[in-house]
Amino acid sequence: LSILPLCHSFGFLVSLIALFGAAMLVMFSSFNATDVLEAIEYYGVKNFVGVPVMYQMLINSPDFTERDLSSLEVASSGSAALPPELAKKWEKVVGFKVGQGFGLTETSPITHVAAKWMPEIRSESIGVPIIDTDAKIVNPDTLKELKSGEIGELLIKGLILHLLRELPDVHIIFPRLLEALLYSLYI
């Protein structure tokens, strides 16, 4: 099911993954909860990837508990934290947790995943770094690594960040990106 904008790296990647896996791709030009729930039932959609506001609209739709959503095997959320109350409502009706993740367009775009098959990861977690990606939480002033549960800044190191560092004018075009690249040297 492709409901995320294809002009954004998140929507583009999700659609490419489906095509790469030779899956049927049900495309939408805009989001409507009733239409999406109907499509899940009609086409037997197995994977649903959305953003928290889409989950909110699906759960608030009168069709949410009326449609047969048993074909769904995976549900993922990104772009912002999925509120715990939405995650619980989804799990109660659909029967499994929504996996969350984290990423940036500049990281191509996923850095972390918390998938359905990772039961030890809390539902509010962004999960674990993907292959060839390292991350840590640091004190933003000292860049010293913090202990589990402490609040700090997320530093990410991965292949795409090293490739971007080679671009000569990246610091002029993307000042915050340069800061992220410099931080990545510390990991």
TrEMBL record:
Species of provenance: marine sediment metagenome
Keywords, sorted A to Z: Ligase, Membrane, Transmembrane, Transmembrane helix
Protein name per its UniProtKB record: AMP-dependent synthetase/ligase domain-containing protein
Gene3D superfamilies in the cross-refs: 3.40.50.980, Luciferase, Domain 3
Pfam families named among the record's database cross-references: AMP-binding (PF00501)
Protein family per UniProt: Belongs to the ATP-dependent AMP-binding enzyme family.
Positions of transmembrane segments: 12-31
Presence of keyword Endoplasmic reticulum: no
GO molecular function terms noted in the UniProt entry: CoA-ligase activity
InterPro entries, per the entry: AMP-dep_synth/lig_dom
